[in-house]
Design a protein that fits this description.
Layout lengths: L3 E6 L3 H12 L4 E4 L9 E7 L2 E6 L8 H6 L9 E2 L3 E6 L7 E4 L2 H12 L1 H24 L7 H6 L4 H12 L2 H8 L7 H12 L11 H10 L9 E2 L4 H13 L3 E3 L4 E7 L2 E7 L4 E9 L3 H9 L6 H8 L7 E8 L20 E4 L3 H12 L9 E4 L14 E8 L7 H20 L5 H4 E8 H8 L35 E3 L13 H13 L3
Parallel strand pairs: 1-2, 1-12, 2-9, 6-14, 12-18
Antiparallel strand pairs: 3-4, 5-8, 6-7, 10-11, 11-12, 13-16, 13-17, 14-15, 15-16
């Protein structure tokens, strides 16, 4: 008899979601986690005493309501907060800031009054356009995906086919210029959408294929990209999953790093830990990325040649920086941004002047340079949820794309400080008290997340949001059904369909495939 019915490698949100499904079905499930805490890159940690930070994922953008219900997350303690605004995007002086209100009436009023009737109409038409892709995503969410060629061929009309082709293979700007044709107007609006298109890619907003990320980010949640927060931090999602998993009999073993998969007669029969201990199971589900799973834990010599080559071709290059601060006071914006000091609008302020600005940053990044004027997302969740910090204090997290991805260790350490200074400077220019408000600071890049969590390249997508790496080609062509060429091994992480973000869907779907193979 095996030690367990199922072993899950990695206690991130996808691994835990798979564990919940299997444990509720009555299986004996063990989840192995290399770190000392659950959640992976969807965890809330105390980096500085008394202050909590979301290390990794920081907003619930793509968590669909259907998934919350299927996994009963609210029943196990998840409480969502929807702020009055999702974010405010600002740029050059004189360009009207773009404030995304979560109330539809206020959003339409803002667009009409501050940006004009053409901005309101363009935004409405853009979302209608993207929802064609969203309909495909909804139909494909809870199943191994169909071929995108087949989906396009079976589209009901020529217009739908054209939209799907553009969303899959066009650039973000091919889409945006349909609705915002003048590059000298609505720069903050188009900059905001363009930034969504480059997230999770190795692309610029004019790069063919970037429209896919734009469509994915604005339709995956079914709520038009509204930013929601989990009370207590993003780790509350993982905590709710953990409580459900353990209540149904699942077990998590921490500080348990897997060295390799155990193979017997061509079947996966369990795992061996770094300590040398072996644990047997009927099936193994791995929530790590495909290259780590197959090249490191399985070994190329045990894989079909074509499959191994496909895994080695997965693109993971994704340079970024995350800066965590503690603050003794809030930033006080001046000038044309002074309005953000009211009604908690400053909880999420994004410096994204225009798509052209993003494209210049992309060109510098491709030359392995730190952008001289980087975009900056400044996030202060303690404004909306005071539990993050002691009374009278706040926490702040910055995120920025395009930190050089290929540097020597010495260059990396030096340039991450340069980039951190430039990113923080984007807020300090508009809020003169900001630098003096900083108490503590921690600067993390993709290199940190790669070494901490064993993720190839530190890529939080586990395989970028590129057309050749989505739907039936995720993680590699022919293996989008969560299974592997080795019997009894399944993939359940963000590298699987439908893709990255705190969705829980890859874990949920992989567990369903295991139950199908096991007879329900």
């Amino acid at each position: 008899m095996t030690d367990y019915d199922a072993i899950i490698v990695g206690a991130g949100h996808n691994g835990l979601a798979a564990g919940v499904v299997l444990a509720k079905a009555g299986m004996r499930v063990l989840c192995l986690e290399r770190t000392g805490h659950a959640g992976g890159m969807a965890a809330t940690r105390e980096l500085f005493k008394g202050f909590k930070h979301n290390v990794g994922a920081w907003a619930l953008i793509v968590l669909h309501e259907d998934v919350r219900k299927l996994l009963e997350l609210e029943e196990y303690g998840l409480e969502l907060i929807t702020p009055q605004t999702s974010f405010c995007v600002f740029g050059a002086p004189g360009d009207p800031p773009f404030v995304v209100h979560n109330d539809l009436g206020r959003m339409m009023e803002h667009l009409m009054n501050d940006h004009g009737a053409d901005a309101l109409q363009g935004s409405m038409d853009l979302f209608a356009y993207l929802q064609v892709f969203g309909g495909v995503m909804n139909a494909q969410r809870f199943k191994p995906p169909d071929s995108m060629d087949a989906i396009i061929a079976e589209a009901p009309d020529a217009q739908t086919r054209e939209i799907l082709l553009t969303c899959l293979h066009g650039s973000a700007m091919d889409v945006l210029r349909k609705f915002f044709p003048d590059p000298n107007r609505h720069r903050c609006i188009t900059g905001s959408f363009a930034a969504g298109a480059i997230d999770g890619t190795h692309m610029g907003p004019y790069t063919p294929g970037s429209a896919l990320s734009l469509a994915y980010h604005h339709t995956a949640s079914g709520t038009h990209n509204a930013f929601q927060m989990a009370r207590g931090g993003i780790g509350s999602v993982s905590d709710a999953l953990l409580r459900s998993f353990e209540k149904h009999g699942g077990k998590v073993q921490y500080r348990a790093e897997v060295r390799r998969m155990l193979l017997r007669h061509g079947l996966v029969a369990g795992v061996e830990l770094r300590t040398g201990d072996t644990i047997s199971s009927q099936v193994v589900l791995c929530s790590l990325d495909a290259r780590t799973t197959f090249m490191d834990l399985v070994g190329e010599e045990h894989l079909p040649s074509a499959f191994a080559h496909a895994v080695k071709e997965i693109e993971y290059t994704n340079g970024y920086i995350q800066i965590h601060l503690t603050l003794k006071e809030l930033p006080e914006y001046t000038g044309d941004l002074a309005f953000a000091n009211e009604n908690n609008i400053r909880w999420l302020m994004n410096y994204i002047p225009s798509p052209e600005h993003l494209s210049r940053c992309w060109e510098q990044y491709r030359r392995n340079q730190v952008p001289d004027d980087p975009v900056a997302y400044c996030y202060i969740p303690s404004l909306v949820d005071p539990s993050y910090a002691p009374p009278g204090y706040h926490i702040c997290t910055f995120f920025s794309h395009y930190f050089p991805a290929e540097l020597s260790p010495a260059e990396h350490n030096q340039k991450k400080q340069v980039m951190a200074e430039r990113v923080i400077g984007q807020i300090a220019k508009r809020a003169p008290n900001f630098r003096d408000a900083i108490i503590d600071q921690a600067v993390l890049t993709h290199e940190y997340f790669g070494s901490k969590y064993g993720i190839t390249g530190g890529d939080f997508c586990h395989g970028l949001l590129h057309p050749g790496q989505m739907f039936q080609r995720r993680p590699v062509p022919g293996w989008s059904n969560y299974q592997a060429p080795l019997q009894n091994l399944y993939m359940c992480g963000a590298g699987c369909h439908p893709g990255p973000g705190v969705t829980c869907v890859p874990g949920y779907n992989a567990a369903q495939e295991v139950l199908k193979r096991a007879g329900g």
